[in-house]
Design brief:
This protein is about 65% helix and about 0% strand. The protein is mostly helical. It has a single domain, classed as Hypothetical protein af1432 (Orthogonal Bundle). The longest helix is centred in the first third of the chain and has 21 residues.
Length: about 190
């Protein structure tokens, strides 16, 4: 890593607008707490949570061209909803600009919007922490925030179900990878006998 934690905080404060920066601080704290609960490296979780929205430092109007520069595939879904690109773009930028070379952190940042089949515990924690950080408010949130007695995959399934239902209710396009992630969740449930 090229920078200290303090230097990364300073860089991030200047890179993101205040709203995204304070959101990132809350996601960092939530991810760290979840990592303690679910037995994941807390430092990696905190850093991945802090940097998860690094791609939002690129203006939405510029994100498609930035993705293409970084050789990130841009399909019709991303063309219609460029917001989806902030995760993979952010992952590439934290590597090139900040010198983050830990593939676990890079993957967690890249996977926090659409997801990926066979997500790691860290991937799932960052995805969930982004959704349930303290400033979020939506119907059903408390059920997702209630981690007691649940396995991480169960909490992730609740979070992912919320996302899917939200997309359907709003008649949004659904990324093809979303179906792969959903099917992966169900296969894990079957394999674990739940």
């Amino acid at each position: 890593m090229r920078y200290s934690k303090e230097e990364i905080l300073d860089l991030l404060a200047n890179w993101l607008d205040e709203e995204f920066f304070t959101h990132s601080l809350r996601v960092r704290d939530m991810a760290k707490g979840m990592a303690e609960k679910f037995g994941v490296d807390t430092e990696k979780a905190a850093l991945a949570g802090l940097l998860h929205d690094y791609g939002k430092g690129i203006k939405e109007i510029d994100i498609i061209s930035e993705a293409k520069k970084l050789n990130i595939p841009v399909g019709y879904i991303e063309e219609s909803d460029p917001y989806l690109l902030h995760a993979p773009v952010g992952a590439e930028l934290i590597s090139s600009q900040l010198g983050i070379d830990d593939s676990n952190i890079i993957n967690a940042v890249s996977r926090h919007t659409v997801g990926e089949p066979s997500m790691s515990k860290l991937d799932m924690i960052v995805y969930i922490a982004d959704m349930v950080e303290p400033a979020r408010t939506f119907s059903g949130l408390e059920k997702i925030r209630d981690f007691d007695g649940k396995r991480l995959i169960e909490v992730f399934e609740l979070a992912y179900t919320h996302t899917l239902c939200h997309l359907v209710r709003r008649k949004k396009l659904i990324h093809p990878k979303t179906f792969e992630v959903w099917n992966w969740i169900q296969l894990v449930r079957i394999e674990e006998g739940h």
